[in-house]
Amino acid sequence: MSFDLVFFGGTGDLTWRKLMPALFQAFRHGKLPAGGRILAVARDERSDDDYRSFIKERFAEVESSKRPSDEEFARFADLLHYRRMDLSKPEDYAGLKQWLDARSAETVVLYLATSPYLFPVICEQLGAAGLNEERVRVVLEKPLGHDLASAQEINRVVRSVFNERQAFRIDHYLGKPSVQNLMALRFANALFEPLWRRESIANIQITLAESIGVGTRGDFYDRTGALRDMIQNHALQLLTMIAMEPPSTNDADAIRDEKLKVLKSLKPFTPDSVTRDVLRGQYKAGTVDGKPVPGYLDEVKVPKNSSCETFVALRTEVQNWRWAGVPFYLRTGKRLAARDAQIVVNFRPVPHPIFASNGRANKLVINLQPEDGLELHLLAAKGSGPAEQLAPVSLDLDFDKAFPSERVGAYERLLLDAIAGRLNLFVRSDEQEQAWRWVEPILDAWEGNPSDLKTYAAGGWGPAAASALVARDGFAWAEEQ
Fold first, then answer.
1. Which of 29, 81, 234, 352 is catalytic?
2. Which amino acid positions bind NADP(+), per UniProt (predicted)?
3. Which CATH number do you get for residue 399?
4. I want to staple 52 with a disulfide (CB 3.0 to 4.6 A). Which of 77, 127, 268, 361 is the partner?
5. 454 is an annotated ligand-binding site residue
6. What's the pLDDT tens digit per position in 285-337?
7. Residue 61 is part of which domain span?
8. Are residues 226 and 90 located together in one domain of the fold?
9. Residue 159 is assigned to a ligand binding site
């Protein structure tokens, strides 16, 4: 299948740090369809060879196992091209269309790796230039908007140019192999479905923890914050996949219809419930991996009086028959104790215990990063001591060992899906807007009211109040169990 893949923002961090390495891995694995061209567009004046040299230099910063040899890069570089474009000039879009029409590839993927405020003008110009024909797909990188109104405006413009099946709203967490295995776990196996409901599950915890700070992105992060950066998209997408009803088919819209139902069933926030059920924090100086690190207010490009949250923990519920009364706890933060993304499904204890144990109930842990796998925690006889004494054991499935061939990364998977036109792992506009609708009362409650911002030392698990949030229901976070 012939394709042209165009990156708007072709010299930006996202393109050279994430997208180009992912494309190279697809090329190395033999998964990138033959007959493709990759075009980067940006404001700089460069030749094709200049751009190829630029990417080769940046590949030196990729982890060593993913770096190409000179021979590999030479073959990959044959696919790379560059055009100078001013995104505000119609004549530059006309020139792009001429370049694309010169060979008329079966599929054209336009990846907007730019700031979201440019999405409307780019889409309008693409439409005016006739670059919205049926073979064209547009990929929209997060964050898609800053609030509900801005997201709706972006979607309005996108829909005025492209139909919904041409719009690929990307959330790279959905491309992680463990997230895809979450679908398989639920809908390809009979083992868990009878237990996947309020009668058997006590609570569900979703943790997206990072040990890094904001680095050199302090100005961007300060305008965004943890709620917009992680909860509104990644965490809510994971919640929908955990809580959704079985779709009728594996069709993209059948899946996304069920995810939307979950988002509409989330318990809405009020000013009082935001105060009670949502916690925000900001890291101060501390120690991570044995090294001292600065506090958020001392990071580069961060205002000294910033009230931006770098940590969020919240409690919510899915108000339907399957999940009524089951707490869902969502947590994310920077400068935490570890880089750790996981979903923990805590099951209820047996109704009448006849064995002595440490009181731990069963739980299923779905590891997203850095490990990729499943852990099923059970109670078993110790083999020594009184027969009625039990101890915790776990069944641990490491997907990297179970599938020893090199696995496809998140961006690699999503880029290949965009080229192939598979929408299953992309977010539909009504999903995305409903997620904004749900978080907006939190943003409104926080506006101009920084007094509830907690601080926490870098290298821990966030403010102490996050533990109290869960303990109020008689539970604990996974690392405290």
1. 234
2. 43, 86-87, 142
3. 3.30.360.10
4. 77
5. no
6. 999 999 999 999 999 999 999 999 999 999 999 999 999 999 999 999 999 99
7. 3-169
8. no
9. no
